[in-house]
Amino acid sequence: LKQRNESLDRMKRLGRALPQTDNHIKVLTLAADDFIVERRNTGKKTIIAGYPWFTDWGRDAMIALPGLTLVTGRYRDAREIIKGFVDCVQEGLIPNCFSDDSGCPHYNTVDASLWLFWAVYKYLEYTGDWDFVNEVYPCLCAIVDDYCRGTRYGIKVDKDGLVTQGEEGMALTWMDARIAGQPVTPRRGKAVEINSLWHFAARFLAYLTSRFEGPRSGKEFTKLADLVRSSFVREFWFEPGGYLYDVVGEVDKDATLRCNQVIAVSLPTRLLNSEQEKSVIRKLWQELYTPYGLRTLSPLSEGYVGTYSGNEHERDRAYHQGTVWVWPWGHFVTAVSRIYADYSGRLMLIKKMVKPLLIHLEDGCVGNVSEIFDGDFPHSPRGCFAQAWSVGEVLRVYAEEVIGVKGRHKIDIQD
Description:
Layout: H1 2-17, H2 23-33, E1 36-38, E2 45-47, E3 50-51, H3 58-70, H4 75-86, E4 97-98, E5 105-106, H5 112-127, H6 130-149, E6 156-157, E7 163-164, E8 178-179, E9 182-183, E10 190-191, H7 192-209, H8 218-236, E11 237-238, E12 243-244, E13 247-248, E14 253-254, H9 263-266, H10 274-287, E15 289-290, E16 293-295, H11 312-318, E17 324-325, H12 327-339, H13 346-360, E18 372-373, E19 381-382, E20 386-387, H14 388-403
Antiparallel strand pairs: 1-2, 3-20, 4-5, 6-7, 8-9, 10-13, 11-12, 13-14, 15-16, 16-17, 17-18, 18-19
Helix pairs in contact: 2-14, 3-4, 3-5, 3-14, 4-5, 5-6, 5-7, 6-7, 7-8, 10-12, 12-14, 13-14
């Protein structure tokens, strides 16, 4: 009885702390609270990636953080979570995940460190806390330096300024399913979302360096960002298809249509011109968009798997080969909202895009958002019944794009 009353009191406190009273925000805020926990042996806040079987993953935490903590006004938790991962950086990499038993971190990821820049950017946008950003600024600089020098698993910056990565048997991007030790979706080389984030990181550092005193010059980061952008457009734009290559390898370019390229049009730094951005959005809408998220592979592509079912190997094979994910949907909605900002029906469209996932709160694990959905109709929920970045992105998108709750501190990091 005591534990129940404490839980009820906690829920009431969370509700009172919200900046507004929308019922969907309240439900999602309670869901968000499920994922913010204390890491064993440290007492520091972190984000559990999903229930019932995930621990805390760096990539998931950084993507989920804006929705789970900033929209809900939990700035102290956001700061503690960011600092916790910053303190674990090794050779430019934040942990991919922590092991279930010992809590020792694994560093086999290329994008978690780059998503850290996004989390810090959003934190600054919501809080204006320059003191904390100044505290983590040296770590951000060190990450870029380590990527430029080259670090583990073949992660390095090529002479064209783009990040390449990969080793045999490794899957370093978020599409990391493996069968018998071999990646289902290897994506070795220069991946589209990695270099979109890399460009964003360079622009953000140029902006920060102009504000902080120190030996670094913002011009060096601006020069890097300019190089990345020019190389990105040259290497990734697939003119015949009107969209972006998924991976640029040493020999071939992979024109497989996947959701990863949405990051190139969702971040607040521009890589493409207006017509190219709209072309990408149209292509993703036509082949990847579903009411519950974006497919990881076009149904028109060879290897598409429309149902996430079967034994472990069959499920792993489907995981990023057509299965629908919620978290890229969040960036898709943000991209649509920005690119079509002058469209009179924008808000109505965004509301229609959000509605199915709000209805989903009453399905599956009631009050929560599933990890994935089938690529084929009726898009049944699968995987974890409650996933941090699914909840975080639905919460962020609904608050920012529908309700209008956004960070009050403008950060202009465009060219």
